[in-house]
Amino acid sequence: HFLLHNHFLSVLRYLPEDILRHIHAKMTLRDAARATCASHAFRHNWICRPNLTFSLGTLGLNRNASRDVITRDLISKIDLIMQNHSGIGVKTLDIDLYSCDNIDFAYLDSWLRIAVTPGIEELILTLPLPSIVFENALPIISVYNFPCSLLSNGSGNSIQYLNLCYCTLRPTAGLGCLRSLTRLHMSCTRITGDELWCLLSNSPALVCLKLLHCEEIISLKIPSLLQRLRFLEVAYCDRLQVVESNAPNLTTFYFAGFLGQISLGGSLQLKTLRMICFRQTNIVCYARQNLLSIAPNVETLTISSLNEMVNTPMLSSKFLHLKLLQISLVGMAFSRAYDYLSLVSFVDASPCLENFVLASSGIDIGPMQISQHRMGHASILGEPSHDLRQIPQQRHAKLKSVTITGFCSAKSLVELTCHILENTTSLDCLTLDTTCHPSCAVTKFDKCHPLMDGDSLVEAQKALLAIRRYVLGKVPSMVKLNILEPCSRCHAVESLV
């Protein structure tokens, strides 16, 4: 090891400065620091290191220590590194202080003054949850005020990515032009709609904008000068009432929260739209009635609804470009009057539809189960087969894949499945999942995940019986049918047949 070490050091003496700088920049922070102790060749590169990423992991700190110890060690190590850095050549500054308590913001101001200079490209700042301090015996929420002045003297010209979490951002009309900023992410950031407008108006190159839990924004307005904006995500900004975008080339819009007034300027470029509304009902109905005016050329549409008390209406309007439709129904157990068959309105209105996923979720929009164990819909079991309703035929020539997760024995759900089978000439695959999601699977401990209770297992058996009675006979021979059911070994129940 000694000989190899000496040979390595001797080789370094003959490498050009730019190659040494490149090698050093590719090392992790800990390895780069160690290398400076082993070689004079790396010492200059260390004080000009372009990528500074500070977290418990990159600094090798004990994650199991108390928060006081974590705060002390993290602050002291970062401060030592920053005070020994020249401030020249910093491209990326990523500071993660989420695990800390009671930070003296003077340290943070000092670090930013050193690193945020002309040439910086990425600035990521994650602070701890706001703490409560007392001033004159009055409680005050302590939130870090990001010094916008750092971006006003030419330092903001080079920045391409700005990500702030748990900060206060108060940009003013004097803010310099952030002409290179392409990505702006803000989480739990205190900024008003007017202040955000000021920031956006100074960011003509913006491509991606993400706003999460920004509670002070009531009205979000995006100026038309953002010609390059492609991606917009607005999630859980609880006081938000208006979203108005005039960005002409927006292609993707994700929205989660309370649905207020949304206007995207009838963007003809919008191809992907996702809406999650957990505090309102009838979002699927709203989408069928209004989304064509918001996104007439949408190709991928995902809707997550808390509860649908109103059936989806049959309308003449068409989603002429829609290829992927995902509908997540949350809390459908409490909406006994809802008619799953009315979702034919969406399917029939989408002549180019290729994939249809009907699901329910409690957390995200990924395919999950329709709540089986509390299913309040009338079961089809015991119904004569000739009592199944039929809707005037609308042939689907491009629909290839249909997935229904959490499939249950609800009559209207079986009717929807049969309608699709009888009117789809292009279908390749039908998947009916009767389990709770994630699907029943054996763990490394040779046991199944305990996700399905007794009532869920009984309903799963009813769903399997409904499939055998009403669906199997309608599946064409060229269609692959996938039926997912509970693990027979760990969730066996007596057959209801």
UniProtKB/TrEMBL annotation:
User: Which residue intervals define the domain At1g61320/AtMIF1 LRR in the entry?
Assistant: 81-488
Give the Gene3D superfamilies listed for this entry: Ribonuclease Inhibitor
Q: Which InterPro entries match?
A: At1g61320/At1g61330-like, LRR_At1g61320_AtMIF1, LRR_dom_sf
User: What protein name does the entry list?
Assistant: At1g61320/AtMIF1 LRR domain-containing protein
Organism taxonomic ancestry: Eukaryota, Viridiplantae, Streptophyta, Embryophyta, Tracheophyta
